[in-house]
């Protein structure tokens, strides 16, 4: 709003200067009209602001906070030290001289029993099973057989696949004739020679 008034005033001033230079009354009347219009705008703006200020509600007065009721009960009276009951006094009982026993008779506190840790048994060294005794007649029969047995790397015995000594060891299948040629000997736990000879008789 103020920008419009400022523009009107500057325009009126310019027209007034033009009217003085050109001696034309038309520019003078136009300058007067613009000045009157700027004045009317200022009056209208003043009235509008006054209405806004009067329309604003006045803030309500703050109510004082309610005072808390003060209790009129007298404070509890403390008992003086002299009037305390006898039961509250803590006394230390000292045994009479005749009641004292011999210090040697006083039982000593139980000493904590330390559990003896037994050494864990050392795992048995991995030993190979013994060698099965095979007769010459059985050896002659085994030479013609092509049945498979299993061997374990770096162990001298050959076994049946059901041998309990094998466990989870890695097994290498091989023919029994080839196993004997390579120097492997039969296991005395699963007795592969006796079982294979008996199966082919």
Polypeptide structure, described:
By secondary structure, the chain is α+β, with helices and mostly antiparallel strands. Among the domains are: about 1-50; about 135-200, no CATH class. The protein is built from five helices and four strands; from the N terminus they run αααβββαβα. A four-stranded mixed β-sheet has the order 3-1-2-4. A hairpin with a 5-residue loop joins β1 and β2 (about 155-160). α1 (about 1-20) packs antiparallel against α2 (about 25-55) and α3 (about 135-145) crosses α5 (about 190-200). The radius of gyration is 62 Å and the shape is rod-shaped.
Labels describing this entry:
single chain, about 200 residues, 5 helices
Topology order in helix (H) and strand (E) letters: HHHEEEHEH
User: Which structural class do you get from the secondary structure elements?
Assistant: alpha+beta
Distance between the termini: 128 Å
Give the spatial strand order of the biggest sheet. 3-1-2-4
Q: What is the gyration radius calculated from CA atoms?
A: 62 Å
Give the beta-strand count: 4
Q: What count of helical segments does DSSP give?
A: 5
Low-confidence stretches: 121-125
The pLDDT mean sits at 74
Helix content: 25-40%
Overall form: rod-shaped
The largest sheet, given as strand count, sense and whether it forms a barrel, is: 4 strands, mixed
Beta-strand content estimate? 5-15%
């Amino acid at each position: 709003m103020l920008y419009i008034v400022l523009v009107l005033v500057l325009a009126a001033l310019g027209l007034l200067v033009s009217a003085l230079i050109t001696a034309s009354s038309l520019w003078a009347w136009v300058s007067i009209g613009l000045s009157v219009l700027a004045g009317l705008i200022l009056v209208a703006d003043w009235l509008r602001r006054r209405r806004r200020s009067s329309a604003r509600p006045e803030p309500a007065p703050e109510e004082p906070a309610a005072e808390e009721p003060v209790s009129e009960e007298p404070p509890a009276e403390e008992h003086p030290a002299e009037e305390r009951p006898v039961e509250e006094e803590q006394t230390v009982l000292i045994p009479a001289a005749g009641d004292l026993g011999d210090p040697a008779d006083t039982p000593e506190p139980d000493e904590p029993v330390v559990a003896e840790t037994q050494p864990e048994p050392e795992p048995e060294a991995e030993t190979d099973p013994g060698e099965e005794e095979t007769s010459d007649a059985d050896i002659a029969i085994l030479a013609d057989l092509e049945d498979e047995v299993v061997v374990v790397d770096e162990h001298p015995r050959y076994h049946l696949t059901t041998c309990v000594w094998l466990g989870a060891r890695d097994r290498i299948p091989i023919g029994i004739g080839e196993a004997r040629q390579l120097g492997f000997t039969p296991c005395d736990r699963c007795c592969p020679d006796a079982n294979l000879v008996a199966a082919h008789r």
